[in-house]
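Entry 14. Structure prediction run on the chain below.
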Amino acid sequence: MKNKVRCYIKRIFLHNLLWNIKQYRKALKSLRPIAERICCICGYQGFFGIAGSPPRIDIRCPKCYSKERHRLLWLALERNLIADEIAVDDKVIHFAPEQGLEKRLRERWNNYSTADIKQTADLILNIEDINLPDSSVKLVIANHVLEHVDDLRSASEISRILRKDGLLICMVPIIEGWDTTYENEDIDTKHGRLLHFGQKDHVRFYGRDFKDRIERGGLKLEREVTAKGEDVVKYALRRGEKVFVFSKG
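Output returned:
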């Protein structure tokens, strides 16, 4: 009887082991790149790496480490779909700069500065309380920043420092199928924010009212650029992701 039980347990163990190995192989296969891509920021051509949580394939450029949103923003700039009115000597402030983008933007504008609350940037600035004079900046770039902060205060401060003809270029995590932005002040732990908002330092997940929220701070939506068509395939962009351009209202 004992031998039969042992044999049964062994068969169950081997069956589960083989099943798990099979599933592991499937998981590894699903993480392989689909096709070679092009990084419009650094010029790399080849397979992209995995990034994000949960992991997304064909995302990170192995040369400049750009992700989908960085490449979409650069494409829009290169094609003069956004910021074509910004002159080479205009003052540009880039909050929480991304490594690959920062290098290219410094080449594009002579009066370009990075800004962050950390000392790694050119300027130590709090986007909720920007220590710059009124009407002193022509362009502010805030790429995936507003979901981390008080967006009304930040939009108001950006509006204050922008010149009359100034612009804000921004991107955020957004689900436009939602009528309203999802917020919950009771979610105040890293695990809770990861679960509810997609990242441990996010405080909201934007819905279709994103534009209205930013306009409350004194800005006006001018245009949007959306990732679509062959660009998504060629440059490994996220389908439907948008760059928003606001002017000083």
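The helical segments are 2-30, 68-78, 99-108, 151-161, 190-197, 210-215, 229-235.
Filed with the rest of this week's runs.
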